Hints:
Layout: E1 4-10, H1 16-27, E2 31-35, H2 63-74, E3 79-85, E4 90-98, E5 103-107, H3 115-118, E6 123-128, H4 131-145, H5 150-172, E7 178-181, H6 187-203
Parallel strand pairs: 1-5, 1-6, 2-5, 6-7
Antiparallel strand pairs: 3-4
Helix pairs in contact: 4-5
The structure holds adenosine-5'-diphosphate and the ligand O=c1ccn([C@@H]2O[C@H](COP(=O)(O)O)[C@@H](O)[C@H]2O)c(=O)[nH]1.
The ligand O=c1ccn([C@@H]2O[C@H](COP(=O)(O)O)[C@@H](O)[C@H]2O)c(=O)[nH]1 binds at residues 12-13, 16, 37, 40, 55-56, 86, 89, 109, 161.
Amino acid sequence: MSxxxxxIAGGTASGKTTLAKILKDSFQDKVTILKHDxxxxxxxxxxxxxxxxxxxxxxxxxxxxxxxxxKELKIGKAIERPVYSYKTNERLDKTKKVKPAPIIIVEGILxxxxxxxxxxxxxxxxxxxxxxxxxxRRISRDIKERDRTFESVKSQYLRxxxxxxxxxxxxxxxxxxIIIPHGGLNEIANDLIIKKxxxxxxxx
Length: 204
Ligand SMILES: Nc1ncnc2c1ncn2[C@@H]1O[C@H](COP(=O)(O)OP(=O)(O)O)[C@@H](O)[C@H]1O
Ligand SMILES: O=c1ccn([C@@H]2O[C@H](COP(=O)(O)O)[C@@H](O)[C@H]2O)c(=O)[nH]1
């Protein structure tokens, strides 16, 4: 089985997970989703409040491991992916088994920054959402789901998230095959991607 590898990149809170979920709902067990975030290095020795961690720099991820595991999935082998906690900045001791599937979706802010990772994708999608909308979404999400305070989201955003977005994420947009404006619930774009996936499934 040759899997179709789809990369979904875009700034924080642009709608990457939302799009990946829409595709998963449409194709169910034919889709496996991986997040680059699972591959964050362990930073449990720092507290988020220390403001010393730059989670938005390309060196924060163990990207070589993601590349290795994607190559295994692509040839039909199951992998044991890392498990990361946003609440403690920790790579946990346990791993999680991920089975191969005809469609493998990877999502992450910086996927198209790395040459060797970028070239693995059969389809590269960049979800493009205005910075003010993304910031508002991130504030709500991080307070609700990632145990953060407004002050910590604000200072992290100004210190690292915004400058790294401008330096690394935004330029990587031009590596994409498709750029989706108003990310998340853009029905026309989502329908086009669904059609592309159906074409692939018909061929295998
Ligand atoms: N089109 C949209 N309209 C309103 N809220 C959205 C939309 N797309 C995503 N969201 C919300 O914004 C937050 C971030 O979206 P998410 O898909 O998780 O982004 P990402 O994976 O890029 O960080 C989530 O709370 C999600 O429910
Ligand atoms: O421990 C962590 C790990 C990551 N982050 C932030 O997460 C976003 C990437 O996730 P999205 O779902 O794409 O928003 C990135 O901007 C990191 O700053 C974190 O805060 N803590």
